[in-house]
Amino acid sequence: PAARRRELTGHHHSTDAPMCAMNPRLLRPLATGFNPTSISTLVGWWDASDATTITLNGSDVSEWRDKSGNARHLSQASAALQPAYVTGSENGKNAVVWPSTVNSRYMDAVSSMTVQQYAIVCTPDLTQDGGLKGIFSSTSNIDLLMQSALWWNGAQNFDQVRINGNAEASLASNPPVAGRSVILARAASPVSRTLRLGGERNQSSRSFRGPMCEILAFSATLSASQQSAVLRYLAGRWGVTLA
Question: Which among 17, 147, 216, 225 would be 20 to 30 A from 236, CA to CA?
Answer without folding.
Answer: 147
